[in-house]
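A reminder before we start the practical. When you read a complex entry, don't treat the lines as separate problems. The point of joint prediction is that each chain is placed relative to the others, so the output describes one connected object in space. Small molecules and nucleic acid strands, if listed, are placed in the same frame. In the example below there are two entries. Take a minute to note the order of the lines before looking further.
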Amino acid sequence: MAMETSLESPAPVRQIANAIAGWVDRLGAVWVEGQVAQVNRRPGMSTVFMTLRDAVADISVTVTCSRTLFDSLNPPVVEGASIVVNAKPSYYANRGTISLYARDIRMVGLGELLARLERRRQLLAAEGLFAPELKRPLPFLPGTVGLVTAPNSAAERDVLENARRRWPAVTFEVAYAAMQGQRSASEVIEAVERLDRNPAVDVIVVARGGGSVEDLLPFSDEALIRAVHAVRTPVVSAIGHEPDQPLLDLVADVRASTPTDAAKLVVPDVAEEQRSVTHARDRVRGAVRGWLAREQAGLDALRSRPALADPRTLLDARLAEIDQLRDRARRTVGHSLDRAADDIGHQRARARALSPLATLQRGYAVLQDADGHVLTSIDGVEAEQLISVRVADGRIHATTTSTTPTTRETDG
Amino acid sequence: MAEKKPAKTETPSYEAAREELIDVVRRLEAGGTTLEESLALWERGEALATICQDWLDGARQRLDAAIEADEG
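Here is the predicted structure of the whole assembly.
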């Protein structure tokens, strides 16, 4: 029933839309097989949207289903899973979109795909390829960072930009490889091994943005896992987003959740490092300066002690002692001299008292004959005899003329 | 009474010099040493103090040099 429209009497959009809706309905319910490329399940929305892609051709269609149905599926529908849906096409007039409304969803292939992956993981794990002790630490400051990624991909930009922001002087050796499809695994292997052979490369990052389980399959490829296990250089696996966990994550030395995270892991934040180095050095200097100040103070204290600073104190004590002794010595000597002097004085006084000198001084004189005998009487003295007269201050020589006896003292 | 010191030729370490200096000052202040000994002790004390000061000056110079080199 073709519609009659013409330039002159065009049909309104709603009429066309309804017509399309009618034709679309005529397809009826069908079983459709395809690969889930995208799952859009938002809390609070009762409908879940999925993109179902043809396994071979690059054709996809939107599939919607009720959340209860979606949640009831076990194993759950994940991106990349192959499923078969019983759906009826519906035309959404407002926006003119067609989608298949699924009333029944059956897993196909994904289960066994995931199962295959799981078996491979267990096999390789049993071989010890994922052993924690094999994990090599990343170099703190790598000379050159090897990067395996798709040419001008978001992953490449994330890694390069973030690394450079943290450490401008970082050098990269990028080895491009297909990050999706059949050749991906072999190209990544070749790139990783080439970077490993390059001695300048200290760490290798394998970076890829998010993708479905199918997209990330190559990163669980056994040959790639064994190759990464064999290389000497530490490998960082940065595949997909946080939840993705290809086998590469298990064999790599370090697993980064995203390419940006990988950049943070392989390159230190130099500004931060610089600050902590400067901080550490300042603290060291402070410590040494503190120690020096303390020791200097201690030494100054010691040196200021009188015993060292002013040795004279030692000598002064002794000098004082010596002075004291000398004084005492002098005093005792002085005393004894005085006593001696007194003694002598007495003796002299007595001697003087006994000595005739004083009598002479009182006007008396002593006569002595020629041979020195003291004449005490006139007997035996003749005239013209030479005599000497001792007076206080000397001697007078004389000759006698005569002698006359004296009566009793009254002539005195 | 002053016992014979180990060979004084090679410079003692800073800590050794400092310990001996403290001992010398203590004995000087305790007294009871002959004049001869206290003079000897005092001279030893001066020598030790100089040694310690040299060590400290050396350390300070090295620290300042490092800092200057840093700011230069």
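Discuss with your neighbour: The mean pLDDT of chain A is 87. What might explain this?
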